[in-house]
């Protein structure tokens, strides 16, 4: 793993490791933590459900597991994925320089959040569902527990889970044991780990990570106040080249190029183009089989590389016919979120 910080642990797999499996093994799955990992005792863990509900619930792990089990294959993608490409445009002090690996895909099993909310008698006037966790984030001012919220519309969609299984194994501590929220298609920040409380309310969460972090600010916004900018929800259309790696030196001739593309929200990736000449001419890549509506799509193509230097570029299109933006400079923002510019790698082909 490429470790950006040991404590709290923040790490991403190198491109070559991510490329190996469309379902990312747990040891390879990126880790994004804002505070020290809490070690919760599953026997004593309780999930409180409160706010705009007819009946407050306090569920043990066994009680949660009595709800119907559902499996969803979902990609998580941090809003800071590919931030390194924004740092190359203009520095962003104090933020991890994530490469293309702050995203991974797993098979999650859990109860539907919708079923738990229905059991509590969710009231019709609740517009947002907030999640609270016990880990304390020093970057909040003052230091505060992690949390966030999603709209009730998303929270009651069938893909949103309270998950306790990841790739067939109980969740590990780093990924949120005993139970985390999984919000497919939305930025990773909303998939709250170690969730302990779910609150139905009239407004988004007041938590630092809803009101101050994970918001898109205009480039000249130097001193943001809570609530400024746009709250990030669905993941933007994005892609990365995983093979060959940046700076690779290979023998000239047919060269396999592979990567991922992810559309976020309820959009799908419908086409990926790859260029060997910096974007002057394009070849359509083949898309691997779909893993489900909420997962990335691996793609591949073979380019004929003549001896010399080549700039390989990719670009994805989604089911709304949207295309990724070309340059990171056009989307630079003060916290370095959603860099979904065309990925490029420079390689050298030798005789
Ligand atoms: N939940 C808690 N309680 N604390 C956190 O720091 N990080 C969030 C989210 N859930 C976080 C959290 C962010 S920003 C992301 S991208 C995902 O978890 C990362 O999930 P992972 O570490 O399992 O990959
Ligand atoms: Mo994130």
UniProtKB/TrEMBL annotation:
<keyword id="KW-0479">Metal-binding</keyword>
<dbReference type="GO" id="GO:0006790">
    <property type="term" value="P:sulfur compound metabolic process"/>
</dbReference>
<dbReference type="InterPro" id="IPR005066">
    <property type="entry name" value="MoCF_OxRdtse_dimer"/>
</dbReference>
<dbReference type="Pfam" id="PF03404">
    <property type="entry name" value="Mo-co_dimer"/>
</dbReference>
<dbReference type="InterPro" id="IPR000572">
    <property type="entry name" value="OxRdtase_Mopterin-bd_dom"/>
</dbReference>
<dbReference type="GO" id="GO:0008482">
    <property type="term" value="F:sulfite oxidase activity"/>
</dbReference>
<keyword id="KW-0560">Oxidoreductase</keyword>
<feature type="domain" description="Oxidoreductase molybdopterin-binding">
    <location>
        <begin position="34"/>
        <end position="208"/>
    </location>
</feature>
<dbReference type="InterPro" id="IPR036374">
    <property type="entry name" value="OxRdtase_Mopterin-bd_sf"/>
</dbReference>
<dbReference type="InterPro" id="IPR008335">
    <property type="entry name" value="Mopterin_OxRdtase_euk"/>
</dbReference>
<dbReference type="InterPro" id="IPR014756">
    <property type="entry name" value="Ig_E-set"/>
</dbReference>
<dbReference type="GO" id="GO:0030151">
    <property type="term" value="F:molybdenum ion binding"/>
</dbReference>
<dbReference type="GO" id="GO:0020037">
    <property type="term" value="F:heme binding"/>
</dbReference>
<feature type="domain" description="Moybdenum cofactor oxidoreductase dimerisation">
    <location>
        <begin position="235"/>
        <end position="348"/>
    </location>
</feature>
<dbReference type="GO" id="GO:0043546">
    <property type="term" value="F:molybdopterin cofactor binding"/>
</dbReference>
<dbReference type="Pfam" id="PF00174">
    <property type="entry name" value="Oxidored_molyb"/>
</dbReference>
<protein>
    <submittedName>
        <fullName>Sulfite dehydrogenase (Cytochrome) subunit SorA apoprotein</fullName>
    </submittedName>
</protein>
<keyword id="KW-0500">Molybdenum</keyword>
């Amino acid at each position: 793993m490429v470790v950006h910080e040991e404590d709290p642990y923040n790490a991403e797999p190198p491109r070559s490791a991510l490329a190996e499996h469309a379902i990312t093994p747990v040891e390879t799955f990126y880790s994004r933590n804002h505070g020290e990992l809490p070690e919760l005792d599953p026997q004593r863990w309780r999930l409180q459900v409160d706010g705009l509900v007819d009946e407050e619930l306090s569920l043990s792990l066994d009680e949660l597991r009595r709800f119907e089990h559902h499996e969803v294959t979902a990609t998580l993608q941090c809003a800071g994925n590919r931030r390194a490409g924004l740092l190359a445009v203009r520095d962003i002090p104090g933020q991890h320089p994530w490469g293309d690996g702050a995203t991974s895909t797993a098979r999650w099993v859990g109860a539907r959040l919708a079923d738990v909310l229905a059991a509590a008698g969710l009231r019709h006037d609740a517009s947002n569902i907030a999640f609270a966790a016990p880990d304390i984030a020093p970057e909040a001012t003052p230091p505060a527990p992690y949390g966030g919220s999603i709209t009730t519309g998303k929270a009651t969609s069938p893909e949103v889970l309270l998950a306790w299984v990841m790739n067939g194994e109980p969740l590990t501590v780093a990924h949120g044991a005993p139970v985390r929220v999984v919000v497919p298609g939305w930025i990773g920040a909303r998939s709250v780990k170690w969730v302990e409380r779910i609150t139905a309310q009239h407004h988004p969460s007041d938590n630092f990570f809803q009101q101050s972090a994970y918001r898109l600010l205009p480039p000249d916004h130097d001193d943001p106040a809570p609530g400024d900018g746009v709250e990030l929800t669905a993941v933007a259309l994005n892609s990365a080249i995983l093979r060959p790696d940046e700076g690779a030196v290979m023998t000239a001739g047919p060269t396999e190029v592979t990567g991922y593309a992810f559309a976020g929200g309820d959009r799908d990736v419908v086409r990926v183009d790859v260029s060997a000449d910096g974007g002057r001419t394009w070849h359509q890549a083949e898309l691997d089989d779909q893993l489900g509506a909420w997962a990335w799509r691996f793609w591949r193509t073979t380019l004929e590389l003549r001896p010399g230097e080549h700039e390989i570029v990719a670009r994805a299109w989604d089911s709304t016919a949207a295309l990724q933006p070309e340059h990171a400079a056009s989307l630079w923002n003060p916290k370095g979120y959603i860099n979904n510019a065309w990925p490029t790698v420079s390689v050298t082909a030798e005789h």
